[in-house]
Amino acid sequence: MDIFRIQDKIISWQKIEKTLQKALTLRSRGFSQQEVADRLKIDRTFISRLEGIGELRKGQSIAFVGFPILNKEEIREILEREGVDFILLMTEKERLDFVNNRSGKELLNELMDLTSRVRSYEVVICVGSDERLKLLEGILDAQVIFIEIGSSPITEDKWVDPEEIKKILRSIKSARPF
After folding, report:
1. Facing residues of 69 across strands?
2. SS3 of the chain: helix, strand, coil, percent, to 5
3. What is the pLDDT of residues 84-131, one digit of tens each?
4. Considering the domain boundaries, does residue 100 fall inside one?
5. Per-residue burial over 13-50, b = 16 or more CB atoms within 10 Å of its CB, e = otherwise
6. pTM
7. What is the per-residue pLDDT across 137-149, written as a single tens digit (0 to 9) for each?
8. 72 lies in a domain?
9. Domain that residue 167 falls in
10. I want to staple 121 with a disulfide (CB 3.0 to 4.6 A). Which of 63, 105, 156, 159 is the partner?
């Protein structure tokens, strides 16, 4: 159990986490912010701010970046069917060709262009190795959802679970306003 000492207070991270989980569970079941606040004896504005911190989509745009993906075409079909705005998927061979078939200047320019484009999306789903995901987290301003498919360096294509992708997209889309 993580305990924090803040001046003369002892704070339990486990208690905070449990309360946050309860609040979000009650809200997802249809309780109003005020009802949740009353039940958990916390301020209603805290519930509102909590939702704001974690909000992934409210009509925002979605980008998907992933490599090296074995079932790339299957994943692409799902993403296109679900209306993902920007899709960049590569196999290991395509990734190596992308790097090896460009001069240093061309590669830098293309990477900067891609980075700029992906940064314009509000939600970015990233599939890759642990190290690539850390790098993308530092570069992107968006809400980022990571799917780790192995430790760096990955040298062969990895299968990505289509059901996991569908579940993530459904959860993002369910946050859209009606």
Report:
1. 158
2. 50, 15, 30
3. 999 999 999 999 999 999 999 999 999 999 988 898 888 999 999 999
4. yes
5. eeeeeebbeebeebbeeebebeebbeeeebeeebbeeb
6. 0.65
7. 888 866 889 999 9
8. yes
9. 62-173
10. 63
CATH number of domain containing 33: 1.10.10
Q: Please report which confidence band the pLDDT of residue 58 belongs to, taking 50, 70 and 90 as the band edges.
A: low
Q: Are 91 and 164 in a shared domain?
A: yes
Domain annotation covers residue 178: no
Encoding tokens for residue 162? 């289509």
Total residues belonging to the chain: 178
Q: Return the CATH number at 144.
A: 3.40.50
Residue 55 has pLDDT above 70, yes or no: no
Burial class (CB in 10 A: 0-12, 13-18, 19+), 104: exposed
